[in-house]
Write a structure and sequence with these properties.
There is one protein chain. The radius of gyration is 39 Å and the shape is rod-shaped. The strands form two sheets. The chain has a three-stranded antiparallel β-sheet. It has a two-stranded parallel ribbon with strand order 4-5. Among the domains are: 105 residues, Tetrahydropterin Synthase, Chain A (2-Layer Sandwich), CATH 3.30.479.30; 56 residues, no CATH class. The chain is an alpha+beta fold and 233 residues long. The longest helix is centred in the last third of the chain and has 43 residues. Strand 1 and strand 2 form a beta hairpin. Helix 2 crosses helix 4. The chain is 52% helix and 18% strand.
Amino acid sequence: MHLGKFRKLKGPGLFFIVPIVETIPYWIDTRVIATSFNAEKTLTKDSVPVSVDAVLFWKVFDPVKASLEVADYHSAISWASQTALRDVIGKTLLSEMLEGRDKISDVLQNIIDVRTEPWGIRVSSVEVKDVLIPPGLEDAMSMQAQAERERQARVILGDSERQVAEKFGEAAKTYANDPVALHLRAMNMLYEGLKKNSTFVIVPSSAIDSMQLGAKEGVTSLSNGMIPKVQAQ
């Protein structure tokens, strides 16, 4: 500044000024700066009070505008970010806010960038860190989510039971038309039971007749060298 009027931009590097006549009102950092901002107990579109914490990444791309167009660009961008966040919260449903943080971040970036561009400031990105809801509502949402998971589990279990019943029906039709297949399946079931070192098996008397367990070949094939005790009922 020369006698209170802007003269020119200097730096980086070595430069000289005339004492008293010339002054340096601002030292401007052109690197990316991170600024935290929040909105406490702000009502969403569906009237739910929430508190939101976010981080703004920005940089000065025009030092002249940042010096002349706004008195304190640090405070200005902080207030602009907070008001933009409150506006977005008021136009967004709670469910959309919890599920679409990236979308909210993009909307905030566009709004803040439009407001700060005349000040020579460009917004790089906005990140929503946390969305806090009332404890009572949080418990209710947790119970709702748990109930939904239980409902889905029951639907999956019911569908599995239906599929199993259909397979059993198909197997029953196959065994009804093919007695040999039924005989082999029954023999296999007994064999699987004997594999667990069991020497005592209880089967219906009709199974003994149909599978010929009294025959020497049947006993040999089942026990594989071990003679089981078969009790008819």
